[in-house]
């Protein structure tokens, strides 16, 4: 199989991406009357398109052999996903089973929180006796500000609650969650007593998921609150460091459409807002609803703080180990360098010693040769003298 045939199955980059990206609006280029949310949506879409183009370019540069291996890995991933789907289905069945078991407990909790005494309703005489009891106890029904206190004690949710929100949340009677009827995702239902802020008795927030198992959000949908005159303006009043929980939570940021183009910086901001909104919804669903009384008393808050401290300690220990490891590497490097320098010095000393020995040997050899030469000359003189003596005697 040729590279051309293999690459025909590989995704191709969209034509004109580079040209489109060059025409993207900058963060500060939005017209003064343009909706900031629309600008954020455009920025996120542009960022996603840019990332997708980079990924496609990377795939196009794979060799034939590597691409074939990728195809094998895709088949393996498909088998894994099939098993994961079965696992998710069984987990969902189990969750549904226990959710039905939880519901009666949640209903009783709601009655206690809101001062609905089931026993008194079943026994009118007992209800009369209760009314004739302590006036203070009779005036104070249920657990005042139960849900407000529970939400305030959650660090993440409390970040979104302003002073004005607290006045409204005092009227919150109950919070429920359930799966949406169509598609994947969940909804949160906030039940309110009659209050001077809005006419609604139930406010609903919905999170629709593309893939609930992978936590891929499709969109979050709030609802338009039916405010009494001037109350919405009161909630939107400037001057607070925090925005309004009711204004922001029930009017969430939206993921941009396919045709939207947005600046990368603005896309990052929108991505953070969407993630924050989803995290708050999940925090209410998974933690506050399930353990409301623990959040009210502060027990859950203390547990989370202890966990955070433990995590911080673990991070410090890990950092300390990493630092020690780096110091060890530096020490090893210094020791190695020191050893190399010592070795160089030893080699240098040995070379100098060897040079001295060679020089000494050369000098000795020269002296020996001189002595030998002198001896030869002396011997030659003696022989010459003897020859002359013999000649004269003759």
Q: Numbering strands along the chain, what is their spatial order in the largest sheet?
A: 1-2-3-4
User: Could you name the CATH topology of the domain at 142-313?
Assistant: Arylsulfatase, C-terminal domain
CATH 2nd-level architecture of the domain at 142-313:
2-Layer Sandwich
Cα radius of gyration in angstroms: 43 Å
Helix content percent band = 55-70%
Q: Please, what is the oligomeric state?
A: single chain
Helices and strands, in order, run as HHHHHHHHHHEEEEHHHHH
Shape: elongated
The H-level CATH homologous superfamily of the domain at 142-313, spelled out, is Nucleosome assembly protein
Pfam family, one: NAP
Family: Belongs to the nucleosome assembly protein (NAP) family.
Organism: Corchorus olitorius
Keywords: Chaperone
Characterization of this structure:
With 394 residues, the chain is α+β, with helices and mostly antiparallel strands. It has a domain at 142-313: 2-Layer Sandwich (Arylsulfatase, C-terminal domain), CATH 3.30.1120. Helix content is 65%, strand content 8%. It is built from 15 helices and 4 strands. Strands 1-2-3-4 form a 4-stranded antiparallel beta sheet, with helices on one face. The longest helix is centred in the C-terminal third of the chain and has 95 residues, at 299-393. It is elongated. The N and C termini lie far apart (114 Å). The relative contact order is 0.09. The model is unreliable at 1-32 and 126-131 (pLDDT under 50).
């Amino acid at each position: 199989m040729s590279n051309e045939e293999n690459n025909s199955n590989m995704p191709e980059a969209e034509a004109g991406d580079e040209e489109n990206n060059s025409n993207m609006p900058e963060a500060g280029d939005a017209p003064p009357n343009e909706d900031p949310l629309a600008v954020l949506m455009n920025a996120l879409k542009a960022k996603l398109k840019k990332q997708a183009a980079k990924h496609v370019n990377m795939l196009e540069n794979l060799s034939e052999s590597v691409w074939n291996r990728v195809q094998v890995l895709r088949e393996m991933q498909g088998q894994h996903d099939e098993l994961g789907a079965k696992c998710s289905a069984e987990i969902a069945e189990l969750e549904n089973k226990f959710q039905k078991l939880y519901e009666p407990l949640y209903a009783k909790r709601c009655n206690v929180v809101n001062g609905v005494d089931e026993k008194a309703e079943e026994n009118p005489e007992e209800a009369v006796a209760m009314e004739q009891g302590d006036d203070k106890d009779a005036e104070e029904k249920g657990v005042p500000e139960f849900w407000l206190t529970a939400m305030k004690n959650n660090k993440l949710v409390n970040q979104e609650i302003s002073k004005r929100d607290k006045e409204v949340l005092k009227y919150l009677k109950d919070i429920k969650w359930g799966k949406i009827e169509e598609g994947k995702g969940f909804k949160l239902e906030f039940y309110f007593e009659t209050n001077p802020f809005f006419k609604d008795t139930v406010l609903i927030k919905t999170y629709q998921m593309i893939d609930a198992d992978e936590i891929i959000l499709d969109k979050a949908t709030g609802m338009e609150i039916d405010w009494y005159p001037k109350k919405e303006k009161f909630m939107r009043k400037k001057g607070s460091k925090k925005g309004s929980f009711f204004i922001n939570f029930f009017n969430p940021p939206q993921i941009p459409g396919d045709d939207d183009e947005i600046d990368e910086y603005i896309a990052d901001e929108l991505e953070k807002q969407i993630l924050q909104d989803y995290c708050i919804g999940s925090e209410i669903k998974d933690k506050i609803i399930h353990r409301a009384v623990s959040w009210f008393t502060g027990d859950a808050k203390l547990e989370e703080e202890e966990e955070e401290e433990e995590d911080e300690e673990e991070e410090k220990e890990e950092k300390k180990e990493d630092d020690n490891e780096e110091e060890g590497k530096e020490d090893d490097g210094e020791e190695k360098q020191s050893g190399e320098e010592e070795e160089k010095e030893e080699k240098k000393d040995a070379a100098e010693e060897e040079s001295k020995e060679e020089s000494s040997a050369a000098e000795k050899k020269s002296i020996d040769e001189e002595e030998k030469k002198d001896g030869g000359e002396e011997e030659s003189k003696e022989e010459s003298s003897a020859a002359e003596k013999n000649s004269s005697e003759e």
